[in-house]
Amino acid sequence: MEYAAGKAGRIFALRLFEGEDVYESIEKTARIENIKHGSVLITGGIRKADVVVGPRQEKPKLEGWFKQFAGPGEVLGVGTLYWDEQGPKLHLHAAMGRGDDYIVGCPRGGAEVFLVLEVTIIEITGIKASRVKDSQSGVNLLRIEEDN
What we know:
This is Putative DNA-binding protein with PD1-like DNA-binding motif. The chain has 148 residues and is mainly beta. Helices cover 8% and strands 66% of the residues.
């Protein structure tokens, strides 16, 4: 385990509009506001999403298992925001549904807002952390410099 103790910094309230891309909007805000580390909460409407629901296979190479959510529907999610070598990267897990159809997973394949999506970003200050490419999985994983 790696960990570091930080403090809550700035808190951002965002309203995303119909058709906006969830990842693009949150990562753009992080870049503009220079939010290096944060926690993200979302609630509202989702029009469609391409959701990772687990690994299709683990070896020889990790491969995501994607499922489509076709709304419009409701969404509630939590995530983290850390930078890699290219900029801010959102890691979000969400539950979304419409009637008896629902799905839970990571909508990293794309997620489009229906009507409105309310987003809260809580900046974490006083830590050193980033997403770094893991040689075994090939995925950019969170690495935290400990405060020893």
